[in-house]
Amino acid sequence: MDSQSTSESQGSFAVLIDADNMRADVIKPLLAEVAKFGTASVKRIYGDWTTPRLGGWKEVLLEQSIQPVQQFGYTTGKNATDSAMIIDAMDLLYTGRFDGFCLVSSDSDFTRLAARLREAGKFVIGFGERKTPKALVSACDRFIYTDVLRSDGGGTQPTNKASVTDKELIGQLREAIDAASDDTGWAHLGGVGSNIQKRAPDFDPRTYGHKRLSDLVAAVGMLEFDKSKMRVRLRPVRTKEIVKS
């Protein structure tokens, strides 16, 4: 995204994947997404690899050099995989080697882990499906839905005007522009993106059919976008429009 800051695009990350709550076909684009933020120094995936349902992971793990961590399900109804992943995350945190963590799961059990890592000053990126509970999404600095990663080229193409007239989206953009604007009403695009992301960790232009934030704001009719200076403002209301209203 255009608003991604330098501090977020550098550093060492630990990528921890919950195999019980993730599909193998998303891992390649997911790791490409992680590379936008920094280096995946550690890549581990947790699950019971003795079960046939995880058999499809083998090729992906070899291709992407991901370390599988075996965790037997000791008791029916209890997820031992979650516990192993949480313990490993804390062990890695205490080494002091990592600038951030990528938690790959749609399971709300990792909400407290994400919050704890952020309390320690680490940048936390979550990856999950749309069913991910809001609590986990909000506990991360950034949350990326895996459906946008499966799309060709990292994002879908806009299919209709509704994709850029969503009321929630318009509200987010208005508030962010207002918070980041100067006395002239113009706001730098990077500031707008950062402001939205702080309020909504799962904000992603690709959700609305646009690969970059600049493409999205350019498509919103109520906004005026100065591409040469990468700045945006609410489109001024003309006198005739005021009279009509």
Q: Can you put this structure into words, describing what you see?
A:
The protein has two domains: 6-150, Rossmann fold; 161-239, 2-Layer Sandwich (Nucleotidyltransferase, domain 5), CATH 3.30.420.610. Helix content is 36%, strand content 18%. It has ten helices and nine strands. Helix 4 links the parallel strand 4 (100-104) and strand 5 (123-128). Residues 3-7, 152-163 and 241-245 have low confidence and may be disordered.
In short, what is this structure?
By secondary structure, the protein is an alpha/beta fold. About 35% of the residues lie in helices and about 20% in strands.
Layout of strands and helices, then pairs:
Elements: E1 12-18, H1 27-34, E2 39-47, H2 58-64, E3 67-70, H3 80-95, E4 100-104, H4 111-119, E5 123-128, H5 134-139, E6 142-145, H6 146-150, H7 167-180, E7 187-188, H8 189-199, H9 213-219, E8 223-226, E9 231-234, H10 239-244
Parallel strand pairs: 1-2, 1-4, 2-3, 4-5, 5-6
Antiparallel strand pairs: 7-9, 8-9
Helix pairs in contact: 7-8
Task: Spell out the key features of this protein.
single chain, about 240 residues, alpha/beta, Rossmann fold, Nucleotidyltransferase, domain 5, 2 domains, six-stranded parallel sheet, three-stranded antiparallel sheet, about 35% helix, about 20% strand, disordered N terminus, disordered C terminus
